[in-house]
Amino acid sequence: MSDFTGLPDLALRTHRAGVIAASDESFEERENLINPWRPRFAEHTFGPKGQEYDGWETRRHRGPGHDWAVIRLGMPGVIRGVVVDTAWFKGNYPPFTSLEACRATGYPSPAQLDSADWVEIVPRSPLSGDAEHDFPVSDDRVFTHVRLNIYPDGGVARLRVHGEVVPDPALLTGLTVDLAALEHGARTVACSNMFYSAPDNMLSPGLARNQAEGWETARRRDNGNDWAVIELAAQGVPALIELDTTNLLFNAPGEARVLAIDHRGPGPLPSTDDPAWFELLSRTTLQPDTPHRFRLPPSDRPATHVRLDIYPDGGIARLRVLGALTADAERELNARWKA
Asked: Any idea where the Allantoicase domain is (predicted)?
């Protein structure tokens, strides 16, 4: 698996992406391309159009041309790599694929995107059946949409578009925002354990529908505790913390603590023994299946990272750190958005 797959999936349905157009979806719907679960398959599940697949499948071409699907990214950003997954498509997969990307303002219709400045980020490349295909991308521009091309037709189970989130600063500056939101560019940079699920899950948009949509660790059998370090979307001043244990009925942490640090220089983060770390939320009792909100004392002390400690282990459905960007952060975000 390529290194880029550790980055957020900009095209995931649960990250607010959508498949807004496709040349054809005669056999299976285009929306399946961005489902969050791994592709499923059950033999002999025949519907009126034939064997049912968990993916996007087009009819057989009888002339020139090829099929395509346009995906609006849920989070704009710099694409570092894509995964084209043909899981379960063994005799009906496309032999070749390519990928294009564009950047569009506002909320364009599929027809308006026809005249967008599309650029090729993955050249025409071969595919095989029932396999994941990783394609690194080396373009540093910010994109909002991608177009998956398949030659000439066939089925693709999933498209994953991994990259670095670059939020539109017009939606963040001058407001109180979630500094720890994945969709704003925050992400987990270290954690003690992610046996059941990844800590980036607790930064995802919306509410967790079940335990799998949060962060959950294995059961500890020692005297330690689990933790996760989150790089915030940008430097900001935290004002409110939410620790949501919804759906975690018997495996919520007993307690939690949140530290913060303002670290923008090169090099690794200092250890938590370093006085540069300061406490946002002291060690506090948590209840199962409960959204906890803690308003912080007024402060003008900025932070770039937070560390969530849970005692001794368990799961957190969502972590929110509401606050305002600093003036420096606003300038940096504007510069990156315009680059």
From this structure: 18-165, 185-324
